[in-house]
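Q: I'm building a small set of examples for a reading group on sequence design. Run inverse folding on the following structure and report the sequence directly after it, with nothing in between.
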């Protein structure tokens, strides 16, 4: 018996999401666009998530459930979902987020592009040129996001819309020039605001790697090497819920700076290899590295870091010898005053003042976390 290939495979990794998963799945069911399959990958949840998934699968034949016996993280669950997918395109969704009803209808509306060609004719014969129409589909679609902020008490404290202008990019060079701008808008490093052509991922064996942070970003950097055409949509119908009591960005991660530095370095090296390393790219990478540095300074002040004052001094002094910092940050343009101050202190090797700045921000952040919540731009 033949099965019709859906246009979209939606892959949702799930781990202990029983409080949110009904709303997430229901927002898929309610889509005005209907040509999809939803693959739920339960990553060895300890709550009732798997049973909830099975109940949804019994109600809708487009929903598939896979249960993993061992918890290996969201990246592995997404890899499993990709292996099970059948759609022409793949997208992802987190189990505690929701979608506007018209999101998928909107972002798929332009993926089939019709190109009109004409066969060559002898101009002396004055014959009407023969028209030939070729339909091609785009390699990737990217859209915006609405961030929904909740404090540690579960109260909604505000929303932040990260929007894009509608545009079509028809060459690899055009696509690559847009990457750094997407990164500046913090929209390059997510997977749930992307629609990927499945054959590109399959043919190039692109996988999510197991890292504590930025697995989405590193996945997208692999994908972008094979993208020739891209559509950017202004739709912001993906609602990303940032809950203080659950966010990984609010916990101490030992590999935070190492992975953050790798993120900047990978973008820097990619643009160098593309021979498209411009002042715009340098400024973007430089500002991001300084911002990550400030965030690391603050995190190093946490008791969970187990770092002594001497350890923190050694950490700062290593910055002075960092070749990446010298290449992208030492002389880049920085708009934000706090980051400009920090960069000046690093350039002048003012170790004591750098540590004092990190301690001050840590104290303020611990006392008034809401001040930083809505302004956070690096995830």
């Amino acid at each position: 018996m033949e099965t019709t290939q859906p246009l979209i495979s939606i892959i949702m990794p799930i781990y202990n999401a029983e409080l949110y998963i009904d709303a997430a799945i229901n927002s898929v069911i309610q889509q005005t666009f209907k040509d999809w399959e939803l693959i739920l990958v339960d990553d060895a949840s300890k709550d009732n998530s798997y049973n909830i998934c099975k109940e949804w699968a019994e109600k809708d034949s487009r929903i598939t459930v896979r249960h993993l016996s061992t918890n290996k993280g969201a990246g592995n669950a997404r890899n499993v979902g990709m292996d099970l997918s059948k759609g022409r395109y793949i997208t992802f969704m987190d189990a505690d987020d929701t979608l506007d009803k018209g999101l998928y209808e909107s972002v798929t509306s332009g993926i089939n592009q019709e190109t009109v060609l004409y066969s060559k004719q002898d101009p002396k014969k004055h014959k009407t040129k023969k028209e030939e129409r070729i339909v091609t589909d785009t390699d990737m679609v990217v859209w915006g996001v609405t961030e929904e902020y909740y404090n540690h008490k579960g109260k909604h404290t505000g929303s932040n819309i990260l929007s894009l202008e509608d545009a079509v990019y028809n060459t690899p060079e055009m696509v690559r020039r847009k990457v750094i701008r997407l990164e500046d808008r913090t929209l390059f490093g997510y997977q749930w605001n992307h629609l990927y052509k499945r054959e590109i991922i399959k043919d190039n064996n692109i996988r999510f790697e197991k890292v504590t942070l930025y697995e989405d970003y590193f996945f997208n950097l692999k994908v972008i090497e094979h993208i020739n055409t891209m559509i950017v949509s202004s739709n912001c119908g993906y609602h990303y819920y940032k809950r203080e009591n659950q966010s990984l960005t609010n916990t101490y991660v030992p590999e935070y700076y190492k992975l953050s530095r790798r993120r900047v370095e990978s973008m820097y090296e990619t643009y160098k290899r593309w021979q498209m390393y411009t002042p715009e790219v340098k400024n973007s990478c430089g500002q991001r590295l300084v911002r990550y540095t400030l965030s690391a300074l603050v995190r190093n002040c946490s008791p969970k870091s187990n770092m002594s004052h001497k350890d923190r001094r050694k950490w700062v002094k290593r910055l002075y010898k960092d070749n990446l910092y010298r290449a992208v940050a030492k002389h880049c343009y920085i708009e934000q005053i706090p980051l400009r101050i920090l960069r000046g202190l690093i350039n002048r090797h003012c170790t004591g003042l750098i540590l004092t700045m990190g301690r001050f921000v840590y104290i303020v952040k611990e006392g008034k976390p809401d001040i930083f919540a809505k302004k956070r731009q690096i995830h």
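Residues 115-120, 374-379 have pLDDT under 50 and may be disordered.
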